[in-house]
Every structure is written in structure tokens, then in C-alpha cells.
User: Which sequence fits this backbone?
């Protein structure tokens, strides 16, 4: 549709997959298909100095089409490596501002919504990738009440317009919505 004409996908991709599943090969293929002129691999992206140097390289790259490969980002412990996460975020942010730079990170373990996942706009899991379960924090009672009120509002509007519930009471419907 025309609404998507101006949509730009991010230029940061996280590839998740088992060891030796072809993550780097896929990254290189993406670079080739994107017409990247240079491929720079940061062999130790778990080192803040290496990330600072990579950021400097990105800033000096001019108009050259450059892909930055950051392998095994899942080895970064967000609880212990706050400085490292800050440098990684700065590097990705610097690259994101430039259309000629592509950043691809790889990881073996994937936890949706963690700090590493949130740095990347696109996540590509390789076939057979195990996804770690996310911890589910229960909602506060005020939030649950608000969500119930919103669900009730839309249910009432649907019922008023002629829709109906089959084999389900309005209260059961609201409970189901809140479980999702």
C-alpha cells in the first residue's frame, strides 16, 4: 500500500542461531546483496575499546557502503557489562544514522526483549533456533483494572453494533482477554 512507501527498515540486524548454523555466512550474503563495499568484523565486540574503535571507523567511513559484523553478542552479560552495553548502543546508534552502514550482530542464545535484542531493529532467527522463555512480570492491580475497562469498552461497543458472543459470557470474555 501507499502508506508503506516511506517505510525504512532499520539497518541493524541481529541473527540468532545455533553454533555453526551459518550466521556469519548469512550476514556476508546480506552484505553482498546489499552491495556493501567493505565488511568489517569486530572480532571482540565484548571489549569496550574495540567498540569505540569500530564507532570511530564508522564515523570516518565517508560514503562507502560498509557492513559491521559483531559476532556472539549474547556473551555480553547486561547485569555486569553496563559500560559495554553503552558503547554497543552508541555504536549501533551512530551506524543507524547513516544509510550506507549496515550493522549485523550474531548470537547463539536469544531472549526476546532483553537488552541486546532491543538494540536491533530486525531479528532473524535461523531455523531451529531455541528461544529462551521470557520472565513474565505480573501486572499491577491498577493496570489489570485499566485493561479490563478497555476490553469492556470495546466489547460493549461491539455488542451495541450488533455483534454477539457465542458460548461465552461478557465476564468470561474479559477474563480471556486479560489472560492473553
Assistant:
Amino acid at each position: 500500500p501507499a502508506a508503506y512507501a516511506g517505510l525504512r527498515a532499520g539497518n541493524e540486524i541481529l541473527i540468532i542461531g545455533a553454533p555453526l548454523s551459518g550466521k556469519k555466512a548469512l550476514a556476508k550474503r546480506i552484505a553482498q546483496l546489499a552491495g556493501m563495499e567493505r565488511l568489517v568484523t569486530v572480532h571482540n565486540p565484548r571489549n569496550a575499546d574495540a567498540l569505540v574503535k569500530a564507532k570511530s571507523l564508522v564515523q570516518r567511513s565517508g560514503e562507502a557502503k560498509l557492513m559491521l559484523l559483531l559476532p556472539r553478542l549474547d556473551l555480553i552479560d547486561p547485569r555486569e557489562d553496563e559500560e559495554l552495553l553503552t558503547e554497543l548502543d552508541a555504536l549501533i546508534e551512530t551506524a543507524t544514522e547513516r544509510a550506507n552502514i549496515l550493522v549485523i550482530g550474531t548470537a547463539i542464545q536469544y531472549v526476546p526483549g532483553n537488552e541486546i535484542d532491543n538494540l536491533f531493529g530486525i531479528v532473524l532467527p535461523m531455523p531451529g533456533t531455541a528461544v529462551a522463555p521470557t520472565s513474565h512480570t505480573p501486572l499491577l492491580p491498577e493496570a489489570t483494572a485499566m485493561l479490563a475497562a478497555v476490553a469492556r469498552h470495546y466489547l460493549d461497543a461491539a455488542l451495541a453494533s450488533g455483534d454477539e458472543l457465542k458460548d461465552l459470557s461478557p465476564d468470561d470474555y474479559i477474563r480471556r482477554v486479560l489472560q492473553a
